[in-house]
Write a structure and sequence with these properties.
- The protein is of the alpha/beta class.
- It has a single domain, classed as LmbE-like (Rossmann fold), CATH 3.40.50.10320.
- About 40% of the residues lie in helices and about 15% in strands.
- It has helices spanning about 25-35, 45-50, 50-60, 65-85, 105-115, 135-150, 180, 195-205, 215-220, 225-230, 255-260, 265-270; strands at about 10-15, 35-45, 90-95, 120-125, 165-170, 190, 235-240.
- A seven-stranded mixed sheet has the order 3-2-1-4-5-7-6, sandwiched between helices.
- The longest helix is centred in the N-terminal third of the chain and has 18 residues, at about 65-85.
């Protein structure tokens, strides 16, 4: 951690279990390595919509797991995955995931957590995913924003008010739909996570209930790699900021200056890396 700044508190809100780290886990790992404190809050248990193996078993009449079993399994998967990235403060609200709706109870619950954790910055889903249609990710974003507002006000009997300094949206769209193409898909902020991409692959492989263990490398080649391609970053996580950046000089990016000056051969060599899947267990599947 740089000696010229104090440790920060970062809060990341996630609609579903795997959202706890999938889109921002590398960035959060960097903050932890720099001495910052990271808290992740998962809104839903995800068992109704994201426990794919259990859903398939019940669909074909071979299911033996109960809903409670699936909830516990998904929670443990996320705990294991986050631990790979160094994230240890993971909180599960276990709301139902049939339909995540905006409600005052969730706003107040999250506002209480904000007042406890007192984050300098909050990271959540994009309000523009799928052109802003109301899905779980968008609802999580709405609840998070309202909770930040509630935390800063007079929330009776819920601790001292706390105002969040920065709010960031992850800029990875969940699907490829007409709605997703209706808004710009180009983020303003890229975080180079090349140094921890192997850990992200290891983490996502913990989510076996969604079959992520079978296509982890391809997942991040088609998302994390594509974000940074045109900016000469092998693997990047993408964000937008809610508030404008304020300073006294132009926010010149050192990365862009470096790319402009180094030989193109070196730049393309750095982009040539491809995640290699571990096929040693193929015969066991």
């Amino acid at each position: 951690m740089s000696s010229d700044r104090r440790p920060l508190s970062i809060l990341h809100t996630a609609a579903h279990p795997a959202d706890a780290f999938d889109m921002a886990g590398g960035t959060l790992a960097h903050h932890i390595r720099d001495g910052d404190r990271v808290t992740v809050v998962v809104f839903t248990h995800g068992a109704h919509s994201h426990a794919h193996r259990v859903i398939e078993d019940h669909k074909h009449g071979t299911g033996g797991q109960t809903l409670k079993d699936a909830v516990e399994l998904k929670q443990q998967e996320v705990i294991d995955a986050c631990a790979v990235l160094g994230i240890t403060d993971v909180r599960f609200l276990r709301y139902e995931d049939h339909v995540l709706s905006f409600n005052s109870d969730l706003v107040v619950t999250l506002a209480r957590i904000i007042r406890e954790v007192r984050p300098d910055a909050v990271v959540t889903h994009s309000p523009f995913e799928n052109a802003g249609l109301t899905g779980a990710h968008r609802v999580c974003c709405d609840i998070t924003y309202q909770a930040c507002c509630a935390s800063a006000g007079m929330l009776e009997g819920e601790g001292k008010p706390h105002r969040v300094g920065e709010l960031f949206y992850v800029w990875q769209h969940g699907e490829t739909t007409l709605g997703d193409y209706a808004v710009p898909r180009f983020p303003a902020i890229l975080i180079d996570v090349t140094d921890v991409i192997d850990l992200k692959v290891q983490a996502i492989k913990c989510i076996k209930s969604q079959y992520y263990d079978g296509f982890a490398e391809k997942l991040y080649e088609t998302t994390t790699a594509s974000h940074g391609l045109h900016m000469c970053v092998p693997y990047a996580e993408a964000f937008m900021r809610h508030y404008p950046e304020v300073g006294r000089r132009l926010p010149i990016c050192e990365h862009n200056l470096k790319i402009a000056q180094r030989p193109m051969e070196e730049t393309y060599a750095s982009l040539s890396r491809v995640l290699s899947p571990d096929r040693s267990k193929d015969t066991a599947r």
